[in-house]
Amino acid sequence: MRAPTGISELDTMLHGGLMRGDVTLVVGSAGTGKTTLALQYLINGATKFNENGLYITFEEMPAQIYRDAANFGWDVRKLEAEGKLRVVCTSPPVLVQFVEQRNPIDAMIAEINAKRIVIDSISHLESFIPASELRGELYRLINHLKMKGLTSVFTAESHEILGDRLVVTGVGLSFLVDCIILLRIVEIQSSLRKALTVLKIRGSDHDKRLREFEITPEEIKIGVPFKDLEGLLTGTPRRTGEERFAEAFAKAARKEK
Amino acid sequence: MKDTGLHELSEKLIGTEIKAEVLHLFHMNPGILDTVDGIARRVGRMPKDVETEIQPLVELGVLRKERFGNLDVVSLNTSKDREIFKKVAALIEGAVKG
To answer: What is the ipTM, given to two decimal places?
Structure first.
């Protein structure tokens, strides 16, 4: 029923992992860790859960993926040689042809018996497909992946780094996908930190709190929920009323002494 | 040193700058599955130049060009690539010894 990501705190937030056969959108601005999270999902699938995976990238070259993954101690080339993972570098027009019969991507899925797929990033399709057709093409692609029984992760870029305007995607993709994980940069006491939350999972409950996360030299580590702060999704949170009251009380108590 | 087809083969593989760039691209990134236009962008060249230059690599079998929907998609034929490079290595060895 569930496809664990292997990132234990995230699996706890998702009540066990991604729903098998679903499409998850990982959305965030540049530098929030979308690619790392998506890659870790595939690496953990291949190494911990015996679920092979396909990574489709548009702009990043496989050589760059190999190098970046090696920084986390993940040997992607070795996993490819073992037939557990494939990194495919292509262009959006080729991906759209993915739904055609007898195509090389389907052949790769069959060849390694892939159960997981990552498309990094789905935002690139916007520059190649006319806006009027984009939603329909995405719907077709999503259903193609579902028919193949793949548990998919799409990454998508959010253009807002900070600010109170949060647009998940411009084409209503948030309605087409089953799960949305939001990565966000937040400014707390003059330093930029990273926050993660699960915005939705179709057909399942989930942890709705915002948690801080960091990208360590080994993996993504998700911490405890943010405390005493509100407005985190605006990127510039403020302390909660209780926290402000507690501080004023403590200040008054100090004066009293 | 005698030439036993080494010159002809290396000419087909890396005879021009663009051919060498394309071959290097595929060796570094064997997972590329792209149109000529996409490959041209990845090596920073014009599609018409790349189209011409990859043809001998396709004829040699190092690259594969397949119709995929309404697009021609190019990828590395890894087994043929290995075979050709073994042949090149053997020719170089023979030429050095000869």
So the answer is: 0.81
At A4, list the tokens.
């664990």
Residue A160 main-chain phi, psi, to 5 deg: -80, 120
**Which residues of chain B make contact with A103, given a CB cutoff of 8 A?**
68-69
CB atoms within 10 A of CB B46: 11
CA distance B47 to B53: 10
Question: Which has more pLDDT, A244 or B2?
Answer: A244
Q: Range with the lowest mean pLDDT among A156-165, A201-210, B13-22?
A: A156-165
Helices B47-60 and B36-43 pack at an angle, to 10 degrees, of 110
Q: Write the CA distances from B4 to B11, B15, B89, B90, integer angstroms.
A: 13, 17, 12, 10
CB contact under 8 A, A91 and B37: yes
For B70, which residue in chain A has the nearest alpha carbon? A97
Both tokens of A75, joined, read 């040997």
Where along chain A do its domains lie? 2-226, 227-257
Q: Is the pTM of this model over 0.90?
A: no
A89 shares contact with chain B (CB less than 8 Å)? yes
Q: pLDDT of B47-97, one tens digit each?
A: 999 999 999 999 999 999 998 888 899 999 999 999 988 888 888 888 787
Q: Do A94 and B32 touch (CB under 8 A)?
A: no
Amino acid at B98: G
Mutation target for B interface from A88, A96, A98, A101: give the one with most B CBs within 10 A.
A88
Domains and CATH numbers, chain B: 6-97 (1.10.10.10)
Superfamily of domain A2-226: P-loop containing nucleotide triphosphate hydrolases (3.40.50.300)
Distance CA A156, CA A219 (A): 20
Distance CA(B52)–CA(A27), nearest Å, equals 40
